[in-house]
Design brief:
Layout (H helix, E strand, L loop, with lengths): L5 H4 L3 E10 L3 E10 L2 E12 L2 E8 L4 E8 L4 E5 L2 E3 L8 H16 L1 E2 L5 E9 L8 E12 L12 E7 L1 H9 L6 H12 L4
Parallel strand pairs: 4-10
Antiparallel strand pairs: 1-2, 2-3, 4-7, 5-6, 5-11, 8-10, 9-10
Length: 197
Amino acid sequence: MSIDTALDTAGWELVGKETQYQNPHVECNLITIKTPHRQTPCTWTVVHRKKGVAIAPITTDGKLLLVHQERIPLQQTLWEFPAGQIDETKTPSSELVIDTCLRELREETGYELPKEGELIPLGYFFTSQGFTDERLFLFAGRGVVPHEQGREPDEHEVIHHCKAFTLAEVRQMIINNVIRDGNSLALFARMSVAGLV
């Protein structure tokens, strides 16, 4: 099957943009836009967020590391793969994306990727395309090892635990809705189709 991706970006015209709210982390805009199949402009509320990364750390014995992190918007603590935002707001370089990925691994899990380890890029996805342009770059890190200084969480994050799970345990956590954030589910799906798990 051939998929024509020209329709993905052709024929869009931004007519107007009004910023409703802005802070260092998020920007809410009311945009007026013509789309490829709507010649009459329509209005839409779009939330702009920094791009982010998520990494599935795989230990030398083949286990997957998950963090148990408080999520304030949900008022819940979730088991997730490590993830975080990229500081550059527009178009981050591939080096910055990778640096952010390895930083999040180190901060949230207390593990690092040694020189003999492998960082595997798995593309990106849109986290909630109906209202935000946020995209998340996905990676698997094979062969991670504990860092001598342990975890160094960001001051704004609360991570209760970092734990290594077997592949069977992670699959069961997904089936039982224990793992339920979109980042981790998308990353596990990409790893599955890539034959990594």
